[in-house]
Amino acid sequence: MQEQAIENAATRSVKFMGINHLAMVTGDMDKTVRFYRDVLGMPLVATIGNKAFRHYFFNMGQGNTIAFFEWPGITTGPAKLSGVPARDGRHFDHISFCVENLDALHDLQARLQAHEVEVTRVVEHQFIQSIYFDDPNGISLEASYWVIDVAEAPVWGDPNPVAAVKEQMAELVAAHK
After folding, report:
1. What is the rounded CA–CA span in Å between residue 154 and residue 168?
2. What SS3 state is found at 41?
3. Residue 174: what are its φ and ψ, rounded to 5°?
4. Closest by CA position to 121, among listed 105, 134, 137, 135
5. Residue 4 φ then ψ, to 5°
6. Which of 2, 64, 119, 136 has the fewest CB atoms within 10 Å distance of its CB?
7. pLDDT at 158 (0 to 100)
């Protein structure tokens, strides 16, 4: 009976609702709070901690949060540009926050500039438009809005996709015949 329940669960798809929290690292929680809460405008919604660490959560909307661990003496390493390979072999490139529309993107850009945060011009990426900036920890950040709803109208722009994508594209073509 239990084996059947496990088999049934293994074949059911899970509906993801977003990111509960993305856990990052900071060496200065006060500076991090002031940036995410005061500059970006993300409400601080939860804090936990003890003598060994702090763990703070900022609301990004719709149940999505970004959280930071602060461990005494931690260093976060050098800043890295978005979309540029890191020489230190890290697995993380950048975070992109979703905003509602182009006006919101321009408003965030102006807010960052008003707080003397270096920010790029709006960059067109075919299906999203974005701005790029760094947080006080050297984490490369992006803010984007969807120009096209890729959940409804996927964009297949890689001229040489991996095998798994070729299979998916073939299945989509076959389903529409």
Report:
1. 11
2. coil
3. -65, -35
4. 105
5. -65, -40
6. 2
7. 87
3-state secondary structure of 143: strand
Q: How confident is the model at residue 98 (pLDDT cuts 50, 70, 90)?
A: very high
pLDDT at 10 over 70: no
What is the fold, at CATH topology level, of the domain defined by 91-177? Answer: 2,3-Dihydroxybiphenyl 1,2-Dioxygenase; domain 1 (3.10.180)
Cα–Cα distance for residue pair 132/61, rounded to 1 Å: 20
Tens of pLDDT, residue by residue over 56-67, are: 999 999 989 999
Q: From the options 3.30.70.1120, 3.10.180.10, 3.90.800.10, 3.30.70.100, give the CATH code of 1-76.
A: 3.10.180.10
Note the pLDDT of residue 7: 67
The answer to whether 132 and 82 are in contact (CB under 8 A) is yes
- How confident is the model at residue 156, as a pLDDT? 85
Beta-bridge partners for 54: 49, 70
Alpha-carbon radius of gyration of the chain: 20
Show me where the domains of the chain are located: 1-76, 91-177
Planar angle of CA 125, 88, 135, nearest 5 degrees: 55
Across 123-137, average pLDDT: 94
CA distance linking residue 160 with residue 148, whole number of Å: 22
**For residue 119, pLDDT beyond 90:** yes
> CB–CB of 158/166 below 8 Å?
no
